[in-house]
Amino acid sequence: MATVHLPSITRVAICGGTHGNELSGVYLVRELQKRERETQKEAEPVSVVTVLSNPRAVQQCRRYTEMDLNRCFTSAILSKPLDVGALYEMERAQELNKILGPRGSTTAVDLVCDLHNTTANMGLCLITYSDNNWISLHVMKYLQREIQSVPVRLVDLGMPHSEAYSLESVGKHGFSIEVGPQPHGLLRADIFNAMQDGVRSMLDWIRRFNSGTIFHGGEVDVYTMVRSVDYPKDPETGSISATIHPQLQDRDFCVLRPGDPMFLSFTGQTQLFEEEEPLYPIFVNESSYYEKGIAMWLTRLRRVQIPPLQVQAD
Amino acid sequence: MATVHLPSITRVAICGGTHGNELSGVYLVRELQKRERETQKEAEPVSVVTVLSNPRAVQQCRRYTEMDLNRCFTSAILSKPLDVGALYEMERAQELNKILGPRGSTTAVDLVCDLHNTTANMGLCLITYSDNNWISLHVMKYLQREIQSVPVRLVDLGMPHSEAYSLESVGKHGFSIEVGPQPHGLLRADIFNAMQDGVRSMLDWIRRFNSGTIFHGGEVDVYTMVRSVDYPKDPETGSISATIHPQLQDRDFCVLRPGDPMFLSFTGQTQLFEEEEPLYPIFVNESSYYEKGIAMWLTRLRRVQIPPLQVQAD
Fold it and tell me: Active-site positions, per UniProt (chains A, B) (predicted)?
């Protein structure tokens, strides 16, 4: 494939606390801000802005206060005139869009990286809206080489950018980084370190890219969202009647074949996976998805050819 | 040691949801209530009452709504006249004390078993106020024999019953059962099943006890609370500046020797354990203890001689 040339990435935003109880991002952003205050600004070609996205939710150590901030970056909400008494997260989304965007404008930062934790065994995972964002795919390939402590993968939401709803969509480029497993509301050193390594390697990649390094193309694995699956529920009470089967728990990104165990009911019955084709479950038993009616997402694994990449000459 | 004879245990309370986001107990109590409705009451010598302790917190999937219910069973709160606008959990504690107690009275249920989850790697753990509650120690010994899927242990709070603050203290006998690791706000099949096995075996033990079985004495391990340890904190902001060291994370009930790593700061410095004697950490990185300033408890391990036990003849 022919080398793709893209403009340099000179303004990067690193955001944590978009969900207030996902503590690795909260503490990593605070740590970066502290180091920024303590060290002399080096004359660097990359300017990094760090943002604590939902300070009110962080303060309360909750996912959100009134509605999920990471579902507020839709065109409808970003353009809505907000009256007195508007939901806090809607106001904050508009504010963040002003600071880091506005989305689709020339003033938007070049790259938004939004840091998240999950209770699922996801390792370190980049999430993007499409599979032809060469920067995300090259960063992922670079992280796979640089990071040994956890597996690194990329999930493609497979939706048009016009339907975007999450914070990273306000930048010219963007992705979220999910790291897990970590219970919400606490910090594990292994997960914090994996996130810190991910951010450090990403900035390293950006510096190399800006300085003219040619990144070779090749094949990478991409997991594309197919559909979500809810927990089995009691038809009368609407309450969950089964958990993730022990043979599936903690096996995010592992193939699930037709006939494999999927759920185990409280009375001991196994429910099998009845899809026609093998798929790859992710976000298996993510605690904050209970309220969304999502026990896991099913994805399709594809090999994607990516082109060599180099910064545009001035 | 001479055989100890104790009255039969005819009324048992099994409580879940004392903390509303510890879901194994919530769903196990609901499941037991469902089975109770669906099956004919057998003519059994044990009457089991199941209680969802904090329904308002369960509804919101939070630990508590206004204050930690499991710290409300103090003599001061239980005897306090409650005005209009009193905290919900204080009212509920008095209500539960009426239903299951009152504490110290002859009408109190014989045994209260309160079900909890922890994010720490605690296996299945009975918690009692003292180490001479022969029923708790014998139940623990029986569970160690019956349950293979997780380790079973007993923690002794080592405090006089007059200082009791938790739900199980309203029964004539009582203990809480902690099962983990499980993030709060979700259900893992392995942890749910371990709790279910624990409750089943406990009821089995009670039936055997009531029917006259002699339980042999012997030696058991007891972990007695020594003191709690807080996370290192930034002296200026009061914010956490380190996590549990990766070598200590998930090693609840494993010996910690002077000089062993204890914390790892965000900048990579290791803080060592500086006690004089080896101790045994428990509740290592329990998420709900962040607000209480507890990174872990340190316990002392002792071998305790327990006497043979048999029900009193009528």
Answer: 178
State how far the Cα of A4 lies from the Cα of A306, in Å rounded to an integer: 10
Residue ranges making up the domain that contains B142: 4-221+305-311
DSSP A287: G
Task: Please list every residue in chain A whose beta carbon sits closer than 8 Å to the beta carbon of residue B243.
Answer: 187-189, 192
Residue B150 located in a structural domain: yes
Rounded to the nearest angstrom, the minimum Cα separation between B20 and chain A is: 14
Condensed to tens digits (0 to 9), the pLDDT of residues A98-115 reads 999 999 999 999 999 999
Contact assignment for A186 to B245 by CB distance below 8 Å: no
Question: Position of tokens 């079900």?
Answer: B115
What is the mean pLDDT of the segment spanning A167-181? 97
Residue A288: its chain B contacts at CB < 8 A?
A: 185
Reported as a single tens digit per residue, the pLDDT across B11-38 is 999 999 999 999 999 999 999 999 887 7
- Return the SS3 of B125: strand
A230/B contact by beta carbon, under 8 A: no
CA distance B24 to chain A (A): 10
- Quick one: B79 and B181 in the same domain? yes
Sheet arrangement for strand B242-244? B242-244, B261-265, B270-272
ipTM summary value: 0.93
Is residue B69 in some structural domain?
Answer: yes
β-strand pairing of A123-128 with B173-180 = unpaired
Q: Is B178 among the catalytic positions? A: yes
Q: Which of A173, A192, A221 is the last residue of a domain?
A: A221
- B213 and B96 in a common domain: yes
